[in-house]
């Protein structure tokens, strides 16, 4: 009995050890390590990596060249030719950092620097000549017509004086459109032209060359300059707040929309709090869109042999969702953007529409109204492979298309017959794919976790099997004892029966003898 009891105790101890080690101690140890190391504490390795990334993000640009501008001017269907990618190294750095110990926040300016990689751009040099809608002429006059129609005549006169246009389309080298800049002659002393030039001087896409000459580019103003001042939680007091934006440009919300749509939700997209659940939406604030965007978990995945969660983002149907009607201009449902798109006019002051590239997942009439598009999920979707414990993006691609919400402007002859359509201008991809130097760290952790899982479950299994064997042995021993007792009892009963029978026989014989004797008498 003592031997059996000892065996039972050892198996219980083995199972208890497996449960405590595998399900309590290891997870608790890992969470403690994460809480100590995955915070933006000054001087830590994570803080240094977060302040200045040791590798460049890959930034790609695709331009839509309009091949039939003359047809479009007469109201025809635009035909576009996609040219790209133009590939850049994008270096991200946070500067002018100020920590607030009491609030557990850190404020900084985000600076992105773009370096053209002609060697990776498949033969493209940036000198390719393309035709796109002139954003200052076409975009500017459409914007004035929408919100400041009394000033439209003044605006058309300014455009005519400054640009002397033969077309509202711009034909220029790609790199001039993107970074180098397209010239704006502000030498005229006419009131309308001078007013227009003065208004442009403080705009981010504008570079002031001298008193009478400006340059306009799509991205030049964003290169090596601050995109705004962020204030985010460091996660030291509450790790679940790690990286969440508290303020942008000293404001707790944006001022582009109505009501709740101005709320800033999520991080700056460079870091996320650990321990995210699959049901959690990953939000990131995008200043250039004046709003936060959310990615949702779709399925389990892996990257470089590391288990990940696959996330994607969909712009949804703003018009069909009453909760998002504050993203519609003037909260007018009829002014809501088409399904799968975002109206950037309240944010930028320009008639721009954002969507996934080539109108993927958007109202299908948008792609049908443009010849030359071929949307497909592999090339145009937004995705994220997220390591779920630390919430680290191991591989991700953010892809956005920008298009002009075109309409005719009858008071400007060159634009009087334009079609009512959305013309794609360009799309960009910002992507990161960590190499094995970085993913190897996560793989080592998962190997440790796999070993831990093997140990805890195998220990439990062997413990349970051992316990089962011990119980089986006990049962067998008890059965053997029971059988022995029954055998002994049967033998005793049999012996007792034989003894009783012998006594009866003897008694019967004696009785018979007496009867015989009496008979003889």
Keywords:
elongated; alpha+beta; 11 helices; 13-stranded antiparallel beta sheet; 521 residues; 36% helix; 28% strand; three-stranded antiparallel beta sheet
Summarize this, please?
The chain is an alpha+beta fold and about 525 residues long. About 35% of the residues lie in helices and about 30% in strands.
Low-confidence stretches: 20-24, 446-460
N/C terminus separation: 70 Å
Structural class: alpha+beta
SSE string, helices as H and strands as E? HHEHEEEHHEHEHEEEEEEEEHEHHEEEH
- Describe the sheet with the most strands: 13 strands, antiparallel
Please, how many helices?
Answer: 11
Helix content range? 25-40%
What would you call the shape? Answer: elongated
- For the secondary structure, the number of strands is 18
Average pLDDT, rounded to a whole number, is 85
Strand content: 25-35%
Which radius of gyration do the C-alpha atoms yield? 39 Å
Number of domains: 2
Layout of helices and strands, plus pairs?
Layout: H1 2-37, H2 45-51, E1 57-66, H3 69-73, E2 80-100, E3 105-116, E4 129-133, H4 135-147, H5 152-163, E5 169-173, H6 174-180, E6 182-185, H7 191-200, E7 206-210, E8 213-216, E9 225-233, E10 245-248, E11 282-286, E12 291-303, E13 306-312, E14 341-343, H8 345-348, E15 352-355, H9 364-368, H10 377-380, E16 383-387, E17 392-406, E18 421-433, H11 436-520
Antiparallel strand pairs: 1-2, 1-18, 2-3, 3-9, 4-5, 6-8, 7-8, 9-10, 11-12, 12-13, 13-16, 14-15, 15-17, 16-17, 17-18
């Amino acid at each position: 009995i003592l031997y059996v009891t000892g065996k039972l105790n050892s198996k219980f101890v083995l199972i208890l050890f497996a449960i405590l080690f595998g399900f309590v101690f290891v997870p608790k140890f890992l969470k403690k390590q994460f809480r100590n190391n995955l915070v933006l504490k000054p001087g830590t390795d994570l803080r240094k990596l977060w302040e200045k990334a040791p590798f460049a993000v890959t930034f790609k640009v695709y331009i839509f060249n309009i091949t039939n501008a003359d047809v479009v001017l007469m109201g025809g269907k635009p035909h576009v030719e996609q040219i790209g990618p133009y590939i850049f190294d994008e270096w991200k750095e946070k500067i002018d950092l100020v920590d607030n110990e009491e609030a557990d926040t850190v404020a900084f300016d985000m600076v992105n620097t773009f370096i053209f990689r002609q060697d990776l751009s498949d033969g493209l040099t940036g000198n390719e000549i393309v035709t796109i809608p002139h954003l200052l002429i076409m975009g500017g006059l459409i914007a004035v017509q929408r919100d400041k129609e009394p000033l439209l005549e003044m605006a058309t006169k300014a455009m005519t004086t400054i640009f002397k246009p033969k077309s509202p389309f711009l034909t220029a080298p790609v790199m001039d459109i993107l970074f180098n800049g397209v010239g704006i002659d502000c030498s005229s002393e006419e009131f309308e032209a001078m007013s227009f030039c003065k208004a442009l001087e403080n705009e981010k896409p504008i570079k002031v060359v001298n008193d009478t000459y400006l340059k306009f580019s799509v991205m030049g103003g964003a290169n090596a300059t601050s995109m705004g001042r962020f204030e985010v939680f460091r996660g030291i007091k509450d790790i679940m707040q790690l990286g969440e934006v508290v303020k942008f440009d000293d404001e707790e919300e944006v001022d582009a929309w109505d009501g709740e749509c101005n709320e800033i939700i999520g991080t700056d997209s460079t870091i996320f709090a650990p321990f995210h659940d699959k049901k959690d939406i990953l939000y990131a604030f995008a200043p250039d869109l004046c709003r936060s965007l959310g990615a949702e978990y779709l399925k389990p995945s892996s990257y470089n042999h590391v288990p990940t969660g696959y996330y994607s983002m969909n712009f949804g149907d703003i018009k069909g969702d009453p909760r998002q009607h504050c993203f519609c201009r003037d909260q007018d449902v009829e002014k809501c953007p088409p399904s799968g798109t975002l109206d950037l006019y309240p944010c930028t002051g320009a008639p721009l529409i954002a969507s996934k590239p080539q109108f993927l997942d958007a109202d299908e009439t948008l792609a049908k109204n443009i010849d030359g598009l071929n949307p497909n999920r592999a090339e145009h979707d937004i995705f994220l492979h997220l390591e779920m414990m630390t919430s680290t993006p191991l591989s991700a691609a953010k892809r956005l298309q920008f298009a002009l919400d075109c309409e005719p402007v009858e008071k400007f002859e060159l634009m009087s017959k334009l079609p009512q359509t959305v013309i794609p201008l360009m799309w960009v991809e910002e992507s990161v794919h960590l190499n094995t130097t970085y993913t190897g760290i996560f793989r080592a952790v998962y190997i440790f976790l796999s070993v831990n899982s093997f140990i805890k479950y195998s220990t439990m299994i062997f413990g349970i099997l051992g316990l089962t064997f011990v119980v089986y042995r006990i049962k067998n021993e008890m059965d053997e004892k029971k059988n022995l007792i029954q055998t002994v009892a049967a033998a005793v009963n049999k012996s007792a029966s034989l003894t009783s029978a012998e006594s009866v026989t003897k008694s019967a014989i004696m009785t018979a003898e007496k009867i015989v004797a009496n008979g003889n008498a």
